[in-house]
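Discussion board: Methods & Data

I've been asked by a reviewer to show the raw model output for two of the constructs in my manuscript, not just the figures. I'm not sure how much to include, so I'm pasting the format here to get opinions. Each protein appears as its amino acid sequence followed by a line of discrete structure tokens. Is this the kind of thing reviewers expect to see in a supplement, or should I convert it first? Here is construct A:
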Amino acid sequence: MNFASDNAYGAWPEILAALGHAAEGTAPSYGDDALTAKVHGRLSKLFEHDLTVFPVISGTAANALALATLVPQHGAVFCHAESHIAVDECGAPEFYTHGAKLVPLESEGAKVSPATLERALGHFLKGFVHHTQPAALSITQSTELGTVYTPAEIAALSELAHAHGMKVHMDGARFANAVAHSAISPADLTWRAGVDAMSFGATKNGALGAEAVIFFHHEDVKDFEYRRKKGGHLLSKMRFVSAQLDAYLTGERWLKHAARANSLAHSLEEGLRGVECARIVYPVEANAVFVSLPDAVVARLRAKGARFYDWAPPSDGRTLIRLVTSFATPEEDVARFVEVVSSE
């Protein structure tokens, strides 16, 4: 019963097959191959927009390189306090920006709210040499708590950020889960709502290691290519990353697999709501369930082989844990987990 992360599971057979095909024959290096060009076309069609696309192999690289391109060294990047860039990237955004400051914000459901952002901006005077200058807002879709921003919420944040001369970046490591939940077009969840650049994730949803940095405005691309090269993320055999993205985007595979992960999370939520000792803490909108359980139940689960993360230290005899479902989570694991929780 592995609910530690969607990273725990492997890759789709179609992606593995695509890698085999990409290994045949020869191809130009460093992204000048036909597969990389094909991915550009697929993403442009998916987002209904003329994009600039750069494949990379990790979400951390995608986030850090995108923000470094959008933000000067003396800039400030506003983000939620739970966000991956603030908590789980070991200072990579600050490293790649050569010193830009992350400004973590507390707000309900791991979503930045316009009111919270506006209050924070009040502490940074534009043009005042002693203050870091507001340069970007980074939001996560879906969030670290499994919640999903609506187009209206993104648009409100983008309007505020743009009014202050800031760019809007989206960490889309689980973007597929957000699209599957909302049934809203990728365009409406991004550039039409004001997003300037995003990290488009595939790894958590079935790729081996494939992400794409997407810029919705060509003028924002600036020196990204040089930053990617200097940072060690310009792969000579780029076609193997692009092959994964090409297979990922073929048909509706990416949404089908994300929808399955979401559905399993809802099944897990439904089962746990039927157990008296379980308390669901956050809305289940994507593929993550946050549940508070008695410490004895948490220990019993681990003794039975269940794997998951504690999201907060134990308090008053209970622990908040995170359960993440994936495209490949067995349905019987969901049923077994609920069974163990409900057993005396």
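Construct B, same format:
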Amino acid sequence: MKALLAFGILFLGASQAFSQQVYSVDYESQADVKVFVVDYESQADLLVYKVKYSSQAGDNDGKWFFVDYESQAKKSVYFVKYESQADLKIYFVDYESQAGWKNSSKKQLMY
């Protein structure tokens, strides 16, 4: 029974550690990743769906939960003004099923 409880705690901890909890910083120098929001889905590296609850955040699959404090985030992002400044181009989608990577070579940016 103790082993099962320990496994459960480790599993829950690991799932939280890899979820896409994101914090938007005020300055470029504070960011792990510089992000630009494109106008069209076809221009994006990643299609992002903003989830309502932390528990719904994905495992680097485009389902992002924006946290209130930087210490809660897996990644900090800065939204740049120009596409040429960005490490990652994203497009916000309306449905969870649309979320995901279009350019898998950029996937390491969000790990």
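Answer (T.O., handling editor elsewhere):
This is acceptable in a supplement if you add a one-line summary per construct. For B, something like: The CA atoms of residues 46 and 101 lie 5 Å apart.
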